[in-house]
Every structure is written in C-alpha cells, then in structure tokens.
Amino acid sequence: MLLGFRALLLLGLVSLLHATRKSNAVSLKMGQGSRLKGQTVRLVLDPSMQPQIASTSASTIANMSLSPWTYRDSCEESRLPRRISHAKCLTSGCLSLQGGGEDAALEAKPIYYQILVLHRVPRKRYSKKAGRMRTNQYDFRLGTEVISVGCTCVRPSVVPQQ
C-alpha cells in the first residue's frame, strides 16, 4: 500500500515534468517547517523512473480485510497530485471470522499516512509596462497531507473510572 501511494506521488511529479517542456527541472518554493523556507530549490525529475505495479490490487485487499474499506477521491486543481484517494472504513466493528457479522469486541480504525504534495501558487511580479501585478506564472510549494490508506482492527480503548 505504501508503494502505491509513493507511486501516486511519483506520477504527479511525472505529470509536472511533462508540463515543463522546456527543461527537466522545476523550481520549488519550500513551505512551513522547512529549513529552506522562502528559498527556491531546483527539483530535477528523472523521466526514466517507472512505478512498480503491485500484484494484488488495493480494492481486493480492502474486500478481504476483517475491517473492509472503500476509497473516496479528493480533487484539487492547484495540487499535485490532483486526485488523492482516502480510505473510509465500511464498518464500525470488525467482521467475524465465522462469518456471523460484526464482532463488537473489536473496532475498525483508519490507518493514516503522511504524503508529500505540491501546491501551485501564483507568482506575483510587477509589470513595469502595464503598471500592475502579473499572475500568469506559478511556483510550486512543497507540503504534506495526512490521508487514510486503509482500515485495521483494534481492541477498544478502555478508560477505568475512579
């Protein structure tokens, strides 16, 4: 599953590479939490990198799990990758091994993972000829998002009363 999301990020970066037809480099402006905040760094994308395809699809694993899930997509035009899939648990409990429905002794909980994303932000430059700001160029700001990648069974947390 981890490999799948890394491949998703790589595909987004490869699409960014195709968008920059003049060269194989993209300028990135580092965001919050970075030691390079406010500086522009050069990101060189290697077009020879090909993501490996897992032999078992994510939907098959989701359906075989004792805590099944489905995926919902979120789309943002200014983000790379534009489409990110989030797992949503289908049950509150876990399915019984004997096939008798949900087991109330266990809970289905999402598994979270932090991914890297690029956000496209307009580059504002002052045009001396027109006397106004131009926003026809963009920078890419590196950021992170926490997404749910699947669901797992856990024991309920019990807080003793005093």
Protein model, in words:
15% of the residues lie in helices and 49% in strands. The protein has helices spanning 2-19, 58-64; strands at residues 25-30, 40-44, 69-75, 79-80, 83-89, 93-95, 102-127, 132-154. The strands form two sheets. Strands 1, 2, 4, 6, 7 and 8 form a six-stranded mixed β-sheet that branches.
What keywords describe this structure?
162 residues; alpha+beta; two-stranded antiparallel sheet; 8 strands; elongated
Give me the secondary-structure topology.
Blueprint lengths: L1 H18 L5 E6 L9 E5 L13 H7 L4 E7 L3 E2 L2 E7 L3 E3 L6 E26 L4 E23 L8
Parallel strand pairs: 1-8
Antiparallel strand pairs: 1-2, 3-5, 4-7, 6-7, 7-8
Category by helix and strand content: alpha+beta
Give unreliable regions as ranges. Answer: 7-11, 13-25
Distance between the termini: 42 Å
> Helical proportion?
10-25%
Rg over alpha carbons = 21 Å
